[in-house]
Design a protein that fits this description.
Length: 537
């Protein structure tokens, strides 16, 4: 079966939905999402959106903080553009109906939070459930729009590109590579559909699931980066994986984040004996940049052999804690932890992918008609380390810019007839009876990525990880072509690809900078490495 549309958007997070709302003004939009429409990282975002609203703050200070976090690798033009456009995008969300928390009393206005690396209060938030509120409002608007259709449980498999059609003799060779949509698995109907589109947008989010411990939901398997890379898109800076310092440590909690905003409101990190330790590592203590806090905790844990450290906010009035962090309070209580009375056991976990598909300031990739926005992209905002709460901001700004830019491309393209790509060819694939291969490889990847390619790396560990991932890649290749595709198999293939890209970039960078820390090259080397790590097939 074939679906024809002007815009194909893959992903229903903040990036995909923001794009779709704007794009629907100039054409038809189909949005695919691989599970339910709210299963996105966006929906779990807690802290908020960084943007300048306080008269004591300035665009220049937000720019400076972002550049400092990025350790010399941000693209300053992109940083300036995103910070400048931020307040308009946030105001637009408010006009759509997003309720951000307000200050109480005489001094009314947006309640602004603070997180690591920010020198001013500038984080707009909806208590500690910001993502859920933004997702709710954007989805409502999308669902009311007659030009937009959402396809749930539709897993994009691979992009349809001109060179694939040239190989099949459908198109003749021209110079530039072009994307015409994607093959998509309808996971409930067990069939593969062809989505044919003039513009394709990857808004597939991050890849936290490549690590054993992560704050990310299950959808975060790096599908967009893997699909883009296989199609020939340039990929950059995959070594810069951000580990969030504070995820709940509890045997029954799968992946629950304790927002950095808790530290912003005075939360203190303690060792098992109740001693604060961050002052040993950085003058900004608990509010140092995320890479520094995560590494400090890692070091404390390695020194003490303890399984976790503790985050304490119990010195603040209980009423304040419950009012400001209702979600964290209630969730911890489910695990018998009363955060108004006792410290929270926490550990670092993989949280955010700073690298991704290389794009320009409008979200354009190196392939014509293919855009990448949000966490899947590497647009130059974050450099070697993302400043807290700059991610939702980036997705809002790039969602809008990519839609405006692609509307221009669409205008130019509309008269060109869409090519007819070949239907998905399952070859002689049969149903698999051996799902254990998938689960085993999945576990193995996540474990060696955590142990060998985690917060602290060495050349030896990276080499070990590379040799493991190559073996797994070979097994997957053999498996992939023999069996009918399933969501699990597709995710495993993408996870292995992303693991390989992270290890490759980490092995190329022979220095330590931001989120990439290699004990064999412990210093920053501006002479040779003040540049992106760019790779492509
Ligand atoms: P997502 O919101 O992750 O959406 C990805 C979409 O792509 C999903 O719909 C998914 O199903 C779909 N998808 C993926 N692969 C496929 C496929 N193959 N086929 C079809 N669909 C596919 N950032 C901040 O700025 N502030 C915060 O306070 C904050 N808090 C966070 C808290 C948590 C717990 C987490 C995990 C992240 C947080 N972040 C925060 C980061 C931020 O939430 C994400 O970077 C951002 O939401 C990513 O948005 P996105 O639209 O790019 O992707
Ligand atoms: C948090 O609330 O700590 C997450 C913020 C972010 O990832 O930017």
């Amino acid at each position: 079966m074939e679906v024809r549309t002007d815009y194909l958007v893959i992903g229903t997070g903040i990036a995909g939905l923001s794009f779709a709302l704007q794009a629907a003004k100039s054409g038809s939009v189909a949005i695919c999402t691989k599970k339910g429409k709210t299963e996105t990282s966006t929906n779990y975002a807690q802290g908020g959106i960084a943007s300048v609203f306080d008269p004591e703050d300035s665009l220049e200070l937000h720019i400076e903080d972002t550049l400092r976090a990025g350790c010399g690798l941000c693209n300053e033009d992109v940083v300036r553009m995103v910070v400048r456009e931020g307040p308009d995008r946030v105001n637009e969300l408010i006009s759509f109906g997003v309720h951000f928390s307000q200050r109480q009393g005489d001094d009314q206005g947006l309640d602004l939070g603070i997180e690591g690396g920010h020198t001013r209060r500038r984080i707009v938030h909806t208590k500690d459930r910001t993502g859920q509120e933004v997702e709710r409002v954007l989805l409502d608007r999308v669902e009311d729009n007659p030009n937009i259709k959402i396809y749930e449980n539709h897993v994009a498999i691979d992009l349809i590109t001109k060179s694939k059609m040239i190989k099949k003799g459908i198109l003749t060779k021209e110079t530039s590579e072009t994307c015409w949509g994607a093959y998509v698995l309808d996971a409930e109907g067990n069939r593969v559909l062809t989505f044919l589109a003039r513009i394709t947008v990857l808004a597939t989010g991050g890849a936290g699931k490549v690590y054993l411990y992560t704050s990310n939901p299950d959808i975060a398997t790096g599908d967009g980066v893997a699909m883009g890379y296989r199609a020939g898109v340039k990929v950059a800076n995959m070594e810069f994986v951000q580990f969030h310092p504070t995820c709940l440590y509890h045997p029954k909690a799968k992946n629950f984040l304790i927002s950095e905003a808790v530290r912003g409101e005075g939360g203190i990190l303690l060792d098992r004996k109740g001693n604060p330790f961050m002052e040993k590592y950085h003058p900004m203590k608990e509010l140092a940049f995320r890479d520094i806090v995560a590494r400090s905790i890692d070091l404390e844990l390695k020194k003490s052999g303890d399984p976790c450290v503790y985050l304490d906010i119990s010195h603040k009035p209980a009423a304040f804690v419950k009012e400001r962090f209702p979600h964290i309070y209630e969730t911890c209580l489910e695990y018998q932890i009363d955060i108004t009375r006792e410290p929270i056991p926490v550990v670092p976990a993989a949280h955010y992918m700073c690298g991704g598909l290389l794009t320009d300031q409008d979200g354009r990739t190196s392939i014509d008609n293919l855009f990448a926005i949000g966490e899947v992209a590497c647009a130059g905002l974050h450099g070697a380390n993302r400043l807290a709460s700059n991610s939702l901001l980036e997705a809002l700004v790039f969602g809008r810019r990519a839609a405006e830019s692609s509307a221009r491309v669409l205008g130019d393209n509309k008269k060109i007839p869409l090519p007819t790509p070949p239907e998905w060819d399952p070859g002689s694939a049969t149903d698999s009876e051996e799902m254990v291969v998938v689960t085993h490889n999945w576990d193995e990847i996540r474990r060696f990525m955590w142990n060998y390619v985690g917060i602290v790396r060495t050349n030896k560990r990276l080499a070990r990880a590379m040799s493991r991932v190559k073996i797994i890649q070979d097994e997957i290749k053999e498996y992939y072509w023999n069996f009918i595709v399933t969501r699990d198999l597709l995710e495993l293939r993408n996870l292995a690809m992303v693991a390989e890209l992270i290890i490759t970039c980490a092995s190329l960078r022979k220095e330590s900078r931001g989120l990439h820390y290699n004990l064999d090259y412990p210093s920053q080397d501006d002479r040779h490495w003040k540049r992106d790590t760019v790779i492509w097939l």
